[in-house]
């Protein structure tokens, strides 16, 4: 959820265009999951360097693709301190088992 200082930025045309283009470039796949050989839909364009009131107007932080990562909701929650919570298990033959 956006903090008060960042609401305007996340509603801006610049962010909407940047995040849309970044998602398309990453084929809508979570980069964290992909690095582990898993295919999950990426939903959130995450800033590696967290946005603050001091840096939000710096496009090298807020809009630069080098500071962005596309992640699924679960990976985004983990990046912000939540514990991993799997919604599925994989059996010995590689089949996905829904919990």
Principal-axis shape = elongated
How are strands sequenced across the largest beta sheet? 1-2
The rounded Rg comes to 15 Å
Number of strands: 4
Name the poorly predicted regions.
Answer: none
> What's the number of domains?
1
The residue fraction in helices comes out at 25-40%
State mean pLDDT (0 to 100 scale).
89
* Share of β-strand residues: 5-15%
N to C succession of SSEs? HHHEHEHEE
User: What structural class results from the helix and strand content?
Assistant: alpha+beta
Number of helices: 5
For the largest beta-sheet, the strand count, sense and barrel status come to: 2 strands, antiparallel
Distance between the termini: 27 Å
Account of the 3D structure:
A hairpin with a 5-residue loop joins β3 and β4 (96-98). The protein is an alpha+beta fold and 99 residues long. The protein has five helices and four strands. The chain is elongated. The chain has one domain (4-98). The strands form two sheets. The protein has a two-stranded antiparallel sheet with strand order 1-2. A two-stranded antiparallel sheet has the order 3-4.
Question: Which key terms come to mind for this protein?
Answer:
two-stranded antiparallel sheet, 99 residues, 14% strand
């Amino acid at each position: 959820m956006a903090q008060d200082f960042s609401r305007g930025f996340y509603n801006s045309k610049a962010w909407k265009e940047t995040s849309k283009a970044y998602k398309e470039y990453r084929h809508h796949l979570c980069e964290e999951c992909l690095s582990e050989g898993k295919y999950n839909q990426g939903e959130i364009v995450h800033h590696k360097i967290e946005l603050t009131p001091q840096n939000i107007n710096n496009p090298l932080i807020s809009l630069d693709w080098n500071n962005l990562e596309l992640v699924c909701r679960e990976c985004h929650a983990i990046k912000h301190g939540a514990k991993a919570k799997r919604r599925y298990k994989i059996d010995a033959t590689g089949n996905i088992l829904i919990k």
